[in-house]
């Protein structure tokens, strides 16, 4: 419990507004709930949210200590009262979450609170599976990333051993990630392998494809298979043998079949014609294709997980 005595500079404010400014990490919905439950008292008694505070009033706040901290990148998950997650699979070690397009996975210059990792940490905190006060250093962490405007399966580790194992399996190519995308144009041949070198321009946030080694370039290998075609559009499945920034988007554009909706590497006139502003790309399937021991995650060997629905597939290539 914490107490605050109202001084002249704070007098006249509504109770809920004073508390929200004093505890910026406390979600508004949770604040209102605590007022209703009388976990926020004025002079020892429950109070209405819109009561005006007077000089000398004493507030008692029966609220978890972590909400009294200053906001930073490690505790912003506390600001999320209702985590919004589409969980594909969960056990005691990890979560597989279907990230929606438009959501960033980690905080960046455009978003600090509404991120995938914050929703995951808030979810586990509210389930009482994790609390930063119980740990010396570990926090639930993402094992892979997906671009803001790409959707699909993201792996979150609930403990340090899982994080280590999954990172090792990704590095050793023992996790297979398959993507669906819609391209403008029909890949020729319909099935194949795109191999080259990708170089990222950090300043421009653009990636270029090169057929020969270049300074700063990294090997990129993508397998693709055309599943369906309809007019000028194709539904294509891609598998990453390497995990480079914008790999599928750049590689498909390189063979003359850019992704529909791609504002960086696609065709602006086609994107506008179809009213698509985000690349139609989805990490829809994940396979635990171990070739070596997986420790505490051995039970996932040969397991495969698929998202229930890829919206753009239903829109452009509905089941017959």
Instruction: Characterize the largest beta sheet: strand count, sense, and whether it forms a barrel.
Output: 11 strands, mixed
Order of helices and strands: EHHEEEEEHEEHEEEEEHHEEH
Shape: elongated
Total of helices: 7
Instruction: Summarize model confidence as the mean pLDDT.
Output: 94
Rg, nearest Å = 24 Å
**Helicity level:** 10-25%
Task: Give the class from helix and strand content and strand pairing.
Answer: alpha+beta
N-to-C span: 61 Å
Quick one: how many beta strands? Answer: 15
Describe this structure in words.
This protein is of the alpha+beta class and about 325 residues long. About 20% of the residues lie in helices and about 30% in strands. It is built from seven helices and 15 strands. It has helices spanning about 15-20, 30-35, 115-125, 160-170, 245-255, 270-275, 310-315; strands at about 1-5, 40, 45, 60, 85-90, 95-100, 140, 150-155, 175-185, 190-200, 205-210, 220-230, 235-240, 280-290, 305. It is elongated. The model has no long low-confidence stretch (mean pLDDT about 95).
Key traits:
single chain; 320 residues; alpha+beta; four-stranded antiparallel beta sheet; 7 helices; elongated
